[in-house]
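F.,

This is the one I mentioned.
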């Protein structure tokens, strides 16, 4: 710890002490203590004053009572002396009447005066009383024995003759000889001495008492009750008279005082009940306590409220502090730029600008200004354009109304280095916090994704979705403006061939070239889109065009597409077929227009390709026909509508049949025999070819078995394999199963694949062919010469036979080109150690040419059309026509 710096613990307490939620309640508690201390002090003072007053009252009462009793006693003694005097002069019997006559006797109601002779007999009394003797009384004995001139005061006692209680005051009578002659008696009721009791002064529990120096009470009055005969401890009464105490009369504490009347041997005692004397004080004390209590409760409530208020305040301050710290930490670590802006008000009380109070590091990067620079400027100094582009207005509104606003913003302010921003404005006390995020990249990504979702990746043209949208938009526009829209479906005629033979990369290149050529043919406002594969769609909104104009445009597209393209160093030429439909004439919706343009395109294909056709209603019939055929084909396998014909293959040297090609026929229940040219493409298109091909394979193998079982010489069975069949990963397994089912030796099976099929993916084709080769299955290339085989690839294929396509055989007699091609294929085959067969041989001339040029085998109508199995059996049964195994 550094010297002179308070220890952290002390600092914490100090900080805590400075917190209002601690100091204020502490102060209030001290105040509470002061209130109670003052209250107790005040009450104490009042108690002392009340006690002093009580003591003073007792003193005053004693004085008054003593004087009263003394007066009464003097009166009684006066009577005693008078009667004594009269009795000693005139004799006891005459004295009383004389005194009564003179009015010198006290009222008989108050005092009973009597005279007893020396023997104790009452000889005279006023008022008159029955006869009695008092010789046994203590006062009689007292006076008989001594002549001391003193009054004797008896205890309060009951009279023998009257059933009353009296105090007897007596004096001795002497005879003329000075000897004891009896006693004069004055009887006084005890209440006589306490009649001065004033309730207003002494209360209900005040005490007036007269008692002898022997401590025996002669008369005592407390409230309404007068009593006598009790014994009081006089010594105790004299002690500590300042403090209230109880007496044997009752258990009520009283302030008491006493005084001795020595002449009569009596003591007067007065007492004031503490409870009554202190009642006013107690009431006052209670009032004070209530006041202090009430003040305390109020103070405690105030303390609680103050504590709560200051605690909430402290909490709020802590929250604010934490929030500020969190904000500072978060904003520094954040990828968003933070700007805290405080409103600056003008003279008109409206926001004139915003001062930049704080920023974070991200803001520095985004604005290329340091935090210091930012703090020393205002919003409008920094971004002058904010006044006009809506930003300033938004900030003013959020400052005034609070809340949050967020939006994406295409930035037009060069001071902020972001093309696109997401900005969020949060209203805070006296201003706003603006949070800026650079979303340029994500915007570009989104635009890219949006573009990708709507465009073809290869050509960059609108894709199927966007084409649909464009057609719909064009229809809506045309509907409003009373115009027309042409939708044209463009399908490349020989694209598949190019793709299969030159590979996908070349195919892609071709598509891109064709696409850009089509785009060049139309206006910018028109749409050229790629629908998929080699299909394109043109959407051409047309204000005033007729079919002739449209045809001209489409001819332009045809011409552009058909221009040769150089791919991989080879010049390739593809044409296209175009079908067009026009809104509103050929359809009012996107789907109808597309469907009808598609139908027209199919018609263009049927018309020999490389032409365009406008939709006509009957075209749909062809489409429907196609769909109906497809539907029928689905049932063909299950319903046994398929059968195979077999076309013999002849060895040109011997002229004998060495094998057959299985050719499929569909025996349609209504249409009769349907040629494979019609339905094989449909089967290929729908994928049904896999199941159909498997059936062909099995049936061909079984048929070969049947012929062999019939004892006919074994011949080769050729089966055509379509591209989709060839791609089937289970092809080898299916072939093996067909052979196994028919128990046919693999050497009698040959699979024919087209040149274009194997050139699509040379390596894959080689792999598959090798698998088949290991099973001893022969492979031949069908339609050779129509595709693009490379010699290198040809060398790698495990091929045993090439088949010259019939298109080269057809004009063999006249076309020197075809002759050259045929010769080249024959020569090539032989150089590659393959046999060569020509198909479609219909004439002697064709056969002669082939024989002359070394062709090994032929197949064609010249020898036989495809025929049912029985015909083949008949043929094979003639030994001269069979070339023998593997010829
Ligand atoms: N994938 C499969 N394709 C098959 C199957 N069966 C036939 N096909 C293919 O269908 C195409 C048309 O076949 P088809 O109508 O049977 O025509 C064949 C012959 O009838 C015909 N041919 C034979 N000789 C002559 C002739 O002298 N002149 C002439 N004009 N035509 C003739 O040629 C067709 C045989 O061609 P190819 O297969 O190239 O040897 C056809 O492409 C068949 O391949 C099948 O089961 N699966």
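My design for it:
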């Amino acid at each position: 710890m550094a010297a002179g710096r308070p220890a952290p613990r002390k600092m914490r307490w100090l900080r805590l002490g400075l917190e209002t939620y601690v100091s204020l309640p502490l102060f209030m508690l001290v105040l509470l203590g002061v209130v109670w201390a003052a209250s107790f002090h005040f009450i104490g003072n009042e108690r002392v004053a009340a006690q002093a007053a009580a003591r003073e009252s007792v003193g005053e009462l004693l004085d008054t009572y003593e004087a009263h009793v003394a007066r009464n006693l003097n009166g009684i003694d006066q009577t005693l002396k008078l009667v004594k005097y009269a009795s000693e002069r005139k004799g006891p019997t005459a004295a009383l009447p004389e005194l009564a006559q003179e009015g010198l006797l006290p009222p008989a109601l108050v005092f009973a005066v009597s005279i007893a002779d020396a023997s104790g007999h009452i000889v005279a009394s006023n008022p008159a009383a029955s006869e009695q003797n008092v010789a046994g009384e203590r006062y009689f004995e007292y006076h008989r024995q001594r002549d001391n001139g003193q009054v004797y005061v008896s205890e309060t006692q009951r009279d023998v003759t009257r059933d009353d209680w009296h105090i007897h005051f007596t004096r001795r009578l002497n005879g003329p000889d000075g000897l004891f002659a009896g006693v004069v008696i004055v009887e006084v009721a005890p209440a006589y001495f306490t009649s001065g009791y004033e309730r207003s002064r002494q209360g209900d529990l005040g005490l007036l008492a007269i008692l002898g120096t022997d401590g025996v009470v002669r008369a005592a009055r407390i409230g309404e009750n007068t009593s006598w005969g009790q014994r009081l401890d006089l010594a105790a009464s004299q002690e500590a008279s300042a403090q209230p105490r109880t007496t044997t009369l009752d258990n009520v504490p009283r302030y008491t005082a006493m005084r001795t009347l020595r002449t009569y041997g009596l003591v007067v005692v007065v007492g004031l009940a503490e409870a009554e004397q202190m009642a006013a004080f107690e009431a006052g004390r209670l009032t004070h306590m209530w006041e202090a209590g009430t003040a305390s409760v109020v103070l405690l409530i105030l303390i609680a409220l103050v504590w709560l208020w200051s605690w909430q305040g402290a909490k709020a301050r802590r929250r604010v502090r934490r929030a500020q710290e969190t904000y500072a930490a978060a904003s520094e670590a954040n990828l968003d730029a933070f700007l805290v802006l405080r409103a600056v008000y003008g003279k008109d009380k409206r926001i004139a600008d915003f001062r930049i109070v704080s920023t974070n590091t991200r803001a520095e990067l985004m604005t290329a200004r340091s935090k210091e620079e930012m703090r020393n400027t205002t919003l409008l100094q920094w971004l002058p354009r904010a006044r006009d582009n809506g930003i300033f207005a938004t900030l003013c509104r959020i400052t005034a109304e609070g809340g949050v606003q967020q939006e994406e913003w295409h930035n037009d302010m060069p001071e902020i280095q972001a093309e696109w921003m997401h900005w969020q404005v949060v209203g805070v006390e006296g201003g706003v916090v603006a949070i800026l995020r650079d979303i340029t990249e994500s915007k570009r990504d989104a635009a890219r994704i949006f573009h990708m979702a709507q465009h073809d990746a290869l050509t960059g043209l609108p894709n199927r979705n966007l084409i649909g949208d464009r057609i719909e938009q064009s229809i809506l526009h045309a509907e409003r403006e009373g115009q027309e829209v042409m939708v044209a479906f463009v399908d490349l005629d020989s694209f598949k061939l190019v793709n299969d033979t030159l590979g996908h990369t070349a195919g892609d290149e071709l598509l891109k070239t064709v696409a850009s050529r089509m785009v060049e043919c139309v206006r910018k406002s028109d749409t050229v889109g790629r629908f998929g594969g080699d299909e394109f769609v043109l959407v051409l909104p047309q204000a005033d065009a007729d079919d002739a104009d449209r045809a001209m445009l489409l001819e332009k597209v045809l011409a552009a597409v058909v221009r040769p393209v150089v791919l991989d160093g080879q010049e390739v030429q593809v044409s296209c077929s175009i079908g067009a439909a026009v809104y509103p004439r050929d359809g009012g919706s996107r789907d109808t227009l597309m469907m009808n343009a598609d139908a027209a395109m199919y018609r263009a294909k049927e018309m020999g390709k490389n032409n365009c056709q406008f939709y006509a209603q009957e075209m749909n019939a062809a489409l429907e026909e196609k769909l109906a055929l497809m539907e029928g084909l689905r049932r063909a396998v299950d319903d046994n509508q398929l059968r195979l014909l077999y076309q013999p293959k002849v060895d040109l040297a011997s002229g004998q049949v060495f094998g057959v090609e299985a050719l499929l026929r569909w025996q349609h229940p209504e249409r009769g025999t349907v040629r494979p040219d019609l339905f094989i493409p449909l089967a290929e298109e729908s994928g049904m070819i896999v199941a159909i091909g498997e059936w062909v394979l099995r049936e061909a193998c079984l048929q070969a078995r049947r012929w062999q079982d019939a004892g006919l010489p074994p011949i080769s069975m050729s089966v055509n394999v379509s591209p989709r069949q060839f791609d089937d990963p289970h092809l080898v397994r299916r072939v093996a199963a067909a052979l196994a089912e028919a128990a046919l030796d693999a050497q009698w099976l040959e699979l024919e694949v087209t040149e274009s099929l194997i050139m699509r993916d040379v390596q894959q084709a080689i792999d598959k062919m090798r698998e088949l080769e290991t099973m001893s299955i022969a492979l031949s290339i069908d339609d050779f010469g129509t595709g693009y085989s490379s010699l290198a690839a040809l060398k790698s294929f495990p091929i045993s036979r090439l088949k010259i396509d019939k298109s080269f055989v057809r004009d063999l007699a006249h076309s020197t080109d075809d002759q050259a091609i045929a010769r080249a294929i024959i020569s090539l085959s032989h150089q590659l150690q393959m046999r060569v067969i020509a198909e479609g041989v219909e004439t002697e001339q064709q056969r002669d040419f082939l024989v002359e040029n070394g062709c090994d085998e032929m197949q064609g109508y010249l020898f036989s059309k495809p025929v049912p199995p029985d015909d083949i059996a008949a043929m094979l049964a003639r030994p001269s026509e069979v070339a023998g195994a593997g010829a």
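The chain has 30 helices and 32 strands.

Talk soon.
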